Amino acid sequence: MYYRLLLFLLAGACLLPAAAAPVWECDFTRPEIREAVRKSPCASLKKGADGVWTLVLDAPAGRSGAVTVPLPAGKLAGKYVTFEAEIAYRNVTYPVGAPWNGVKFMASFLNGEGRRVYPQWDGFPQAERWGRHDRRRAYWRYAYPADAKDCKLTLGLETSSGYAEFRNVRFFTEEAPVSILTLSPVPKARYDAVLPPRGRGVMSPFSIDRMDEDAFRTLADWKVNLLRWQLNQPQGKGDPASYAAWVREQYSVLDRLFEMGEKYGIWIVVDLHLASSILQTADGRDTVVEIWRGLARHCKGKPMLWGYDLLNEPNTASSEPGLEMFAEYQGRLVRAVREIDPDTQVIVTGHYGSHGGLEFLPVYPEKNIVYTIHFYRPNEFTHQLDRRAGTFLRYPDANRNWDKRYLRRMLAGTREFQLKTGARIYVGEFSAIRWAPGADRYLRDSLELFEEYGWDWSYHAFREWDGWSLEHSGDPAGIRLDPENGRLRAVLEALRRER
């Protein structure tokens, strides 16, 4: 019974009934909304032949534009909210420095800790939030916490120029999802007596060219015993069929990884690092099921196979009408793998890999299921990506209450999920940009908590982008190797603890 109950989840509930009335609509005739439009130099309103008002953003080269209006927090807090709008755009440039920007349809809020959270539309299936797209209905979903306040709707272009239209913007609500931790009894995860060892390691680079024998030798010297290998979707492989073909081409790469892993004592996690847009259509979802069947057939029985990481940070809030809910779909992936490989660990996750989302997943009935989170809190500290900023936030920071106690609070939900379900927890990614002051202390505090809780972990990332590199100095202005830097020392201390 709990399994059916929890299929109504944080990300992926089915569409509302057709007869449902919207709870709120963006009425462009209201004076306060017209005033917000007037204040944006790139925004205007036009009335269509059908009498519907349309918000137009027309930002010239080098400019962006957006309109932000308040949302009724009392109608969102504690609700599962479905947003929809008709959106069209053309000549929208690639967003500067932030691919999650571009055409923006977002409903942010302040949570109970006073931190602003930014749930938003992830784009049309097989399309980006830039370039051109004819008018089409867009929709996304999010479960707003009961303490959500200061909710704001943003429509426009962020760090992009171009032309965009929005009309018939509205939202519907349903009751918020149920936490598995409130059930009595709480279901328990099942594991074999003998499983792969505790994993302590790193995320892979993008290319096999960077994982030569020297790289494996370096990781072995560090005492790494786990490599999370990302089958990262390359540009031009955005449709399901081309991505599936590319994955099949990677079988020989995986064989090489297993061979080197066996030689150097490093276990391999196979991570399907695909764009969430593939999950928005029935065809895309079916293709991913077949991708995993193929990977399971190829990888079953390989030496040093630690687990199958089903979906990397899936944005499960957008999907075609009629698709199954996300937890149910993820269960379909689990079953597809289990049909072929009954024993190897299968790694599941919640919306965007959030550290707070596991309680809204079911405990899947299959054995040897590992639950993964990605941890980058506070994001304002870990993701200071602009190396030219000049000044940077630091850790710890007493004024912001950023310290080890803050990290422990952020991880409390995952810890509760572990204690009540007995689930194995894997921190698939965590990091801090190398030039952030106190990044070494942040990594040390995080790792001490992971070790205290007995979690598996992999640092993001090894020989990928230099901003995350453990091998380079903390100087944002240069790329200089520094084998004595504090971030590397913090990670090495954790890697070299008694196993």
Description:
This protein has an 8-stranded parallel barrel, surrounded by 4 helices. Strands 1, 2, 3, 5, 8 and 10 form a 6-stranded antiparallel sheet that branches. It is an alpha/beta fold. The N terminus is likely disordered. The chain is globular, with a radius of gyration of 23 Å.
Question: What order do the strands of the largest sheet run in, or round the barrel if closed?
Answer: 11-12-13-14-15-16-17-18
Amount of helix:
25-40%
Question: Main β-sheet: number of strands, strand sense, barrel status?
Answer: 8 strands, parallel, barrel
* Backbone shape: globular
Mean pLDDT: 91
Beta content: 25-35%
The number of distinct helices, counting runs of at least 4 residues, comes to: 13
Number of strands: 18
Global Rg: 23 Å
Short structural description:
With 499 residues, the chain is an alpha/beta fold. The chain is 26% helix and 25% strand. Strands 11-12-13-14-15-16-17-18 form an eight-stranded parallel barrel, surrounded by four helices. Strands 1, 2, 3, 5, 8 and 10 form a six-stranded antiparallel sheet that branches. A four-stranded antiparallel sheet has the order 4-9-6-7.
